[in-house]
């Protein structure tokens, strides 16, 4: 992907890119309707450290201007809603949150996902 971005980006053009950094002990579980729980299927590739991702950018001739990483936090209410959907008590997230304003506000309470970070990087094509 970075080679293609480099090709289409003008010289001295800027790129903002973000990804997930996952430590070895990081686990996140998804439930697919009609299937069992499984590990996160949404990530094509997971990086083990900020350094690994930043080096990948540098190897592809991007200058790192600035980056920031922070822990991933997930709304605890979404875990409850997922469970209620699995039980058949709810049809969807939207049914739940649109009907309950107080619960929608409680969605702001988030728990840290251990072993996961998000890194956002501003780079420039050299």
How would the blueprint of this fold be written?
Elements lengths: L1 H7 L5 E9 L6 E3 L5 E3 L10 H10 L2 E14 H12 L5 H7 L1 H6 L3 E16 L1
Antiparallel strand pairs: 1-5, 2-3, 4-5
What does this structure look like?
The structure is a single chain. The chain has helices at 2-8, 50-59, 76-87, 93-99, 101-106, and strands at 14-22, 29-31, 37-39, 62-75, 110-125. The protein is of the alpha+beta class. It has a 3-stranded antiparallel beta sheet. The chain has a two-stranded antiparallel ribbon with strand order 2-3. The protein is elongated, with a radius of gyration of 19 Å.
Describe, in short, the structure shown.
By secondary structure, this protein is of the alpha+beta class. The protein is 33% helix and 36% strand.
User: What is the 3D form?
Assistant: elongated
Through-space gap between termini: 17 Å
Uncertain runs are: none
With strands numbered from the N-terminus, the spatial order across the biggest sheet is 1-5-4
Average predicted local confidence, pLDDT: 86
SSE run: HEEEHEHHHE
Give me the Rg, rounded.
19 Å
Number of domains: 1
Give the % helix. Answer: 25-40%
> Which percent range describes the beta-strand content?
35-45%
Number of helices: 5
Strand count, sense and barrel status of the largest sheet are: 3 strands, antiparallel
List the quaternary state of the chains: single chain
